[in-house]
Predict the structure.
Amino acid sequence: MSTPPRQRRKEARPAELLAAAFDLFVARGFAATRMEDIAQRAGVSKGTVFLYFESKQALLRAVVEDAVLPHLAAGEAMVEAASGESPEVVLRQLLLCFATALADSRLAGLPKLISAEAGNFPELATYYHDNVVLRIRHLLVSVLERGIAVGVFRACDTTLVGRLAIAPILFECMWQRLPDPCGQEPPLSPEAFIQTHLDLFIRGLLVNPHSPRKAE
Amino acid sequence: MSTPPRQRRKEARPAELLAAAFDLFVARGFAATRMEDIAQRAGVSKGTVFLYFESKQALLRAVVEDAVLPHLAAGEAMVEAASGESPEVVLRQLLLCFATALADSRLAGLPKLISAEAGNFPELATYYHDNVVLRIRHLLVSVLERGIAVGVFRACDTTLVGRLAIAPILFECMWQRLPDPCGQEPPLSPEAFIQTHLDLFIRGLLVNPHSPRKAE
Amino acid sequence: MSTPPRQRRKEARPAELLAAAFDLFVARGFAATRMEDIAQRAGVSKGTVFLYFESKQALLRAVVEDAVLPHLAAGEAMVEAASGESPEVVLRQLLLCFATALADSRLAGLPKLISAEAGNFPELATYYHDNVVLRIRHLLVSVLERGIAVGVFRACDTTLVGRLAIAPILFECMWQRLPDPCGQEPPLSPEAFIQTHLDLFIRGLLVNPHSPRKAE
Amino acid sequence: MSTPPRQRRKEARPAELLAAAFDLFVARGFAATRMEDIAQRAGVSKGTVFLYFESKQALLRAVVEDAVLPHLAAGEAMVEAASGESPEVVLRQLLLCFATALADSRLAGLPKLISAEAGNFPELATYYHDNVVLRIRHLLVSVLERGIAVGVFRACDTTLVGRLAIAPILFECMWQRLPDPCGQEPPLSPEAFIQTHLDLFIRGLLVNPHSPRKAE
DNA sequence: CATGAATGAGGTTTCATTCAT
DNA sequence: GATGAATGAAACCTCATTCAT
């Protein structure tokens, strides 16, 4: 019964703990996740977690901030960069950018986590709403408004249509982690999904849909 | 010393308990909800809950089944009834039906609950997937296939497009319970939301969009 | 392995818990006493303590208040009652009253507990100081002042002499619980102790000591 | 990046640690004092304490011994030196000596510490009893006996009266650390206190009190 | 049936102690 | 030697569940 070798890795620990906590919080929810599980997944012992985070709730806050912060600026930069393009192209790129960011990273679990814990931690919901939701909505609204002004997009309630634009992407994020019950279904390639959505959505939005185009 | 209000008939108890449990499970999650809170919300004492449900987990199962069962047949009946109509009308009615059912009833919280607890209770996810998700997908797929066959809808991956059709509805269900952080924004009328979605989505799907139509 | 029979005694529990907690807090100190030990001494299980007291610290507060409250009025009443007597007799009775109250009851441990925990719970020290220390000092000072005014007691700093009057009594309280290390010494009869103190102290205080009297 | 102040000579470490530990043990009690607090107060890191003391309990033992040892011989030497004087003068000097030793040094906290921890560490109580209490009592008893033999002091239970002689001094030690709740009261000059005690106590003890003397 | 006092397994958190650096 | 990151036993406290009333 040999005790495992003790390792001192002060630099790497917080990130490892945040990653472990994020995954478990998303998979099981905050309340159903035990600190010891987080510790084990990060390869440390129970007590070590508390060297880096004051409490379980503080860990949750840190998890959310850590997931949100690095991505805050990216979207705005992208719109800026693509400002020369046509609204249709910008909208397409923007949504593609979201979808890609979410498809890869563990970030995909964040909406589910926020939605699940908003009831118990309102300050978390507020933080996310102010720092993520509003920014994204603003980006979408401005692209839509420009498209309408230029006469490419149909007139519409831009806030509402902005929501509709990202809703399928976020919904798949929140839903896709469900353990595939039977493995019967092909796991839905994210690329096909986003392309189909873009095609349908933009065609629905355009004043003059590109005439001879297939939906898929 | 006034006598307490006459206790309700015992037949009503299970329904009241299920309703209380549903609301709290959706709002706080399963693990973060205490049996005593459920009892209190249903107006009974802690021990009474166990007279009707074997355990907390059994209560969860009952909650989900109770929410699912009464709605299972409704959709199929509707499609049956509307079989004479054009696919566009049927699709529109079907989605409207979903949206309405969800907007009114407490059923709206179910997807969030399932998504949140699927990780901890896979059998729940399976049950929901088999009894709800697959049926709804099937309904949508069949409508879409008929529309394509008739030449009204563009050719597409019907499964995928079916998902896209309900995704915004479900997403709003899962998201709308977030405590509105600042009250700044109007709470998004469900009618406007679903109408805009239908308009955009069906226009994107049609081979020949109705030419002179506004998006809102 | 039979589980002990469960008893429902809502009325008696708080007092039993307070008594158990008091004894252990005095014997071991607050921090070194485990809630489970208190529970066991009171004949209940770990969780039961928390049905009656919110937290360990709340239990400490309750313990002190419960020990202090019933005795607050007694002393004042006594001085009132004996107001017709000579100051010497009143002082003697007052100190005897203190000594007796402390000798019998578990109250004897209170000064030690307060002294030990004052550093960690300043509000406790304040409460005790205001409600007990000041009142007792006031009683003593008033008796001493009357004695001086009447010309029976020598002039003195009454506050200081008042402290000297009770100091030995309280000191024995705080010290007597020490486990008698060797059993060599007779355990010091409280009666002899208090009588000797009174004799010495009052003789030291009187203007005209009763001449032919032995110290013991 | 300035180099930290040169670390103290290692010879000084144990004394600094003992001092830090003593203060904290007295102020908070043994169980409520964390090793890290002791380390911090001594200006070293957590691990360093264990280089000098095997365990927390060993540190407690060392603290007590360190406080006791240097004073053990002093009292006996004093009595020896003053053997030529009258018993009244010797008793007065002896008590004054105690009071002064306690008033200055941090030694004052020792009785409180012993009283508080005797329940948890009986061997500590025994050690203190054998090495301090008994010696002091013996000193007092011998002075009192000589005074009685010479006919200056009244006949009495010398053990008991010996206790009464030091009780107020020790009581003030144990009590005076209480955080003055309101600062209302003047902090009681130790000199006035001991002088008043000596005056009252010795007058009560003498066969022929010095006739014209004030109590303060 | 209904209640809520009682239980005790289990979770979060603390902290004496160890040990890699 | 000195440090402080790491450990894990043990403490406080919660809450699903039981059962006497």
Remarks:
- The radius of gyration of chain B is 21 Å.
